[in-house]
């Protein structure tokens, strides 16, 4: 499913503090209720910490959560 | 919901019942739609409404004696709608329409003998339905006379007779009608109708027909009564005969389910409360187009909608309870796909106003409560709908806030004060003052701080509700089952239902008996009273409060929706959790209900109204005043509410019982400040200070965070249970300044290696 997409710009200002690495797009798995999604999200290439920007959390993600809750 | 329940609910809501005029019309002409169209000057379209239902429309529309007027609801607000005059205007001014196209042939032959209005109408009705109709008569004089008697040109009849032929009827005028002819025709057809107005009893006498079927002793022969002079009732008799002949030729019951064929009284209720009286437009000289429009506009377009008129929730979802019941039923039957009614079900405030105003006592709140319980049972309740409120309830009943003690220094309680979790959250010092006053003026008053369980009830969580009530009962029994003094109207209602064995009295009744405390405000003034919906059926409570206000010199203004017609502030039923924007608009409407500042005795009402910027007091603010609790104080946010409860418990424990408070969790030591944006987002996104502290603690201890290359802000996240919280912050020495917060419920799988 490609319901969730984010633009790279939202993450360009951020980097991983402990690893001192720029974030790169990596496919990660998001889960909610009984659904799994593969989403490309900015991630630290070294430690794998995933970045979820505000706009995604309160926009697309929020909508999908609500949609799934009504399924 | 079982199908039988749906049926029961659907039949209870009478909104779809027929307006009285249509029910009273012997032919059931849709006068309501007709008036609506005439009111918009859509005369041609209005005519199609008449032509659809009336036989020989060009004739009947001009001579109908309008018995519907007797039943018109407008009758009691100036006068009934002049349907007769309107129909006549329409007949004279509308573009003619083609006669109706008959149904496919039934291959049944029907003979009509006699061509009075009844015979012609019967022929019209049966031809329409696909019967093979042959009409025998000596002349059309009888029907012509009916027109000229009413001052209408008799030529109009010829046009409708021509239409009848166009539709396929065979006319045999100039026939000498004799007994022999009638007998021989009978041999030759499947059924016969004899118009007794046009056929003398010497020729054909089958006696008076049966009132319901118009049948005679002779099988297959139908006739009309001889004494009917009203044209529309004559036409109705023609239709009744057609209905009977249809049943007869199909071999089905002649009598079952015929109650609504003739005029009847509809169950529809229509209120005239907001209708201004206006007399009919006189039509002695016939109507001009403007006059016809004005008269049609007097039609109030009868419907019920009593509940929808007063409930913004019902209004918001654009239907009415009958429709909603069906939607809820469908929602429950969905196996795969989107349950579109979830939000609707979770948006009812369960305030009971609908039941109060509904002529049939339809309680939408009860329907929604059952629907929520079913959702819980089936596991289809959206997780996010009530979770925050239930967590808050758990907090109020948890170690940090809950408390039960006998009064300091005594070992038994005659009373126990139960202020409720929202009062302690919003005005902890007023609770403290109230408790001190009770101890001073009554003996042995213990204290119970906890939640009554209403959120679990509203959320449809019966098991959780029972569990909470069970704990409450045990705690209360532990104090020796004292009389419970309750301040919050919702607690009062909930405890009376859940703890029937307890003696429960409202704090307001006690204060009314004792008189206000010495410290009570002397400011007086005029205030608008806001009855909370939980007090709807508690007249004594409403009275006590008014007496107390009188006692402190406050003059009370009653807004339109008061007492048993009180409106919910938007908190009830957890609306503000499940549908915050609707709750907000509701609170705003509530706030606009009076010019004066409000005074109320439900602290959620107080806070909901205050959130809109309107000044509001809780009655405690007058009885136990404090400078910090003015009518313009803001509603405390979610975090502060929790903190207030926890602090109150701590303070009371130390001051009254000289006990230590509980131990603090490590995250509570995190010192934090918030930017305005962060504070606003926390409130809106239901993120608590404690959630933020948990993230910051995690960030500090693990060092896992992102850093912003531009401004140096740090960002970290943590998922304590099901929600992941993100906090953007900077460090201020040991403390933290939070710039923004957000959250999501989706879970990041994998993640950090
Ligand atoms: S007011 Fe209009 S809708 Fe109501 S009964 Fe009269 S004609 Fe019918
Ligand atoms: S219970 Fe209250 S909120 Fe719910 S439908 Fe009835 S009036 Fe509206
Ligand atoms: S008040 Fe509401 S629920 Fe009751 S009959 Fe009228 S429309 Fe239906
Ligand atoms: Zn890293």
UniProtKB/TrEMBL annotation, chain A:
| Keyword DNA-binding listed | yes
Give every DUF7479 domain span.
13-71
What are the record keywords, sorted? Answer: DNA-binding
Task: Output one GO MF annotation.
Answer: DNA binding
Q: Does the keyword DNA-binding apply?
A: yes
Enumerate the InterPro entries for this protein. Answer: DUF7479 (IPR055902), DVU_1557-like (IPR054656)
**What name does this protein carry?**
DNA-binding protein
Organism of this sequence: Pseudodesulfovibrio cashew
Automatic annotation (TrEMBL), chain B:
User: One GO term of the cellular component aspect?
Assistant: plasma membrane
Q: Does the keyword Metal-binding apply?
A: yes
Q: Does the keyword 4Fe-4S apply?
A: yes
The species is Pseudodesulfovibrio cashew
Source lineage: Bacteria, Pseudomonadati, Thermodesulfobacteriota, Desulfovibrionia, Desulfovibrionales
UniProt protein name = FAD-dependent oxidoreductase
Tell me where in this chain the 4Fe-4S ferredoxin-type domain is found: 337-367
Question: Which UniProt keywords are present, listed alphabetically?
Answer: 4Fe-4S, Iron, Iron-sulfur, Metal-binding, Oxidoreductase
What one GO molecular function would you report for this record?
Answer: oxidoreductase activity
Q: Which domain of life is it from?
A: Bacteria
By its UniProt entry, which InterPro entries does this protein fall under? 4Fe4S_Fe-S-bd, 4Fe4S_Fe_S_CS, Cys_rich_dom, DPD_II, FAD-dep_OxRdtase, FAD/NAD-bd_sf, HdrC_iron-sulfur_subunit, Helical_ferredxn
Pfam families, per database record: CCG, DAO, Fer4_17, Fer4_20
């Amino acid at each position: 499913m490609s319901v969730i997409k984010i633009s790279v710009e939202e993450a360009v200002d951020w980097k991983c503090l402990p690893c001192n690495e720029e974030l790169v797009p990596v496919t990660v798995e998001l889960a909610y209720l009984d659904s799994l999604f593969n989403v490309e999200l900015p991630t630290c290439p070294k430690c794998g910490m995933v970045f979820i920007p505000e706009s995604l959390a309160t926009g697309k993600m929020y909508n999908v959560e609500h949609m799934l809750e009504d399924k | 919901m079982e199908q039988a329940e749906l049926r029961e609910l659907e039949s209870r809501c009478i909104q779809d019942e027929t307006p009285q005029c249509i029910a009273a019309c012997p032919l059931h002409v849709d006068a309501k739609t007709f008036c609506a169209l005439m009111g918009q000057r859509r005369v041609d379209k209005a005519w199609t409404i008449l032509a659809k239902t009336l036989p020989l429309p060009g004739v009947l529309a001009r001579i109908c004696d309008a018995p519907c007027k007797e039943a018109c609801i407008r009758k009691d607000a100036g006068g009934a709608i002049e349907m007769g005059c309107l129909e006549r205007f329409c007949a004279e001014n509308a573009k003619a329409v083609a006669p109706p196209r008959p149904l496919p042939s039934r291959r049944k032959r029907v003979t009509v003998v006699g061509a009075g209005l009844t015979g012609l109408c019967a022929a019209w009705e049966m031809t329409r339905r696909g019967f093979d109709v042959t009409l025998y008569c000596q002349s059309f004089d009888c029907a012509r006379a009916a027109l000229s008697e009413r001052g209408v040109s008799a030529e109009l009849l010829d046009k409708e007779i021509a239409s009848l032929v166009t539709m396929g009827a065979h006319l045999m005028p100039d026939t000498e009608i004799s007994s022999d002819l009638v007998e021989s025709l009978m041999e030759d057809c499947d059924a016969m109708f004899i118009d007794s107005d046009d056929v003398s009893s010497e020729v054909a006498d089958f006696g008076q027909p049966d009132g319901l079927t118009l049948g005679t002793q002779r099988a297959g022969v139908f006739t009309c009564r001889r004494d009917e002079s009203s044209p529309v009732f004559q036409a109705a008799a023609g239709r009744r005969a057609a209905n009977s002949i249809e049943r007869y030729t199909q071999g089905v019951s002649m009598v079952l389910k015929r109650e609504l064929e003739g005029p009847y009284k509809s169950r529809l209720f229509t209120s005239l409360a907001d209708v201004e009286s206006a007399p009919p437009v006189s039509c002695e000289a016939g109507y001009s187009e403007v006059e016809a429009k004005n008269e049609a506009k007097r039609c109030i377009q009868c419907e019920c909608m009593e509940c929808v008129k007063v409930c913004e929730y019902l209004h918001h979802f654009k239907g009415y309870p009958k429709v909603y019941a069906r939607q809820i039923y469908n929602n429950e039957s969905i196996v795969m796909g989107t349950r579109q009614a979830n939000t609707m079900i979770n948006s009812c405030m369960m305030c009971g106003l609908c039941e109060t105003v509904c002529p049939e006592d339809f309680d939408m709140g009860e329907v929604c409560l059952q629907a929520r319980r079913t959702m819980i049972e089936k596991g289809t309740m959206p997780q996010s709908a009530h979770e925050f409120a239930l967590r808050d309830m758990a907090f109020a009943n948890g170690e940090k806030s809950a408390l039960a003690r006998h009064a300091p220094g005594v070992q038994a309680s005659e009373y126990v004060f139960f202020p409720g979790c929202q009062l302690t959250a919003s005005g902890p010092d007023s609770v403290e003052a109230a408790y001190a006053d009770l101890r001073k003026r009554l003996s042995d008053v213990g204290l119970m701080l906890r939640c009554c369980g209403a959120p679990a009830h509203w959320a449809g969580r019966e098991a959780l509700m029972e569990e909470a009530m069970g704990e409450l009962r045990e705690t209360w029994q532990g104090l020796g089952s004292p009389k419970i003094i309750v301040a919050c109207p919702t607690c009062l209602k909930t405890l009376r239902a859940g703890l029937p064995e307890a003696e429960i009295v409202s704090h307001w009744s006690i204060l009314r008996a004792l008189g206000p405390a010495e410290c009570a405000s002397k400011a007086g003034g005029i205030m608008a009273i806001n009855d909370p919906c939980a007090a709807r059926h508690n007249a004594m409570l409403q009275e006590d409060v008014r007496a107390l206000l009188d006692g402190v010199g406050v003059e009370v203004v009653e807004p339109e929706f008061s007492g048993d017609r009180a409106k919910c502030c938007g908190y009830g039923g957890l609306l503000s959790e499940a549908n915050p924007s609707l709750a907000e608009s509701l609170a705003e409407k509530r706030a606009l209900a009076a010019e004066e500042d409000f005074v109320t005795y439900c602290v959620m009402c107080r806070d909901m109204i205050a959130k809109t910027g309107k000044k509001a007091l809780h009655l405690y603010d007058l009885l136990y005043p404090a400078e910090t609790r003015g009518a313009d104080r803001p509603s405390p946010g979610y975090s502060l509410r929790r903190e207030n409860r926890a602090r109150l418990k701590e303070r009371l424990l130390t001051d009254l019982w000289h006990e230590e408070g509980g131990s603090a969790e490590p995250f509570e030591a995190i010192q934090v400040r918030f930017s305005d944006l962060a504070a606003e987002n926390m409130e809106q996104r239901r993120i608590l200070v404690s959630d933020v502290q948990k993230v910051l603690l995690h960030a500090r201890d693990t060092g896992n965070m992102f850093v912003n290359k531009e401004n140096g802000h740090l960002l970290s996240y943590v998922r304590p249970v099901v929600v992941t919280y993100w906090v953007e912050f900077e460090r201020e020495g040991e403390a933290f300044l939070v710039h923004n917060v957000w959250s999501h419920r989706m879970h990041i799988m994998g993640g950090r290696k």
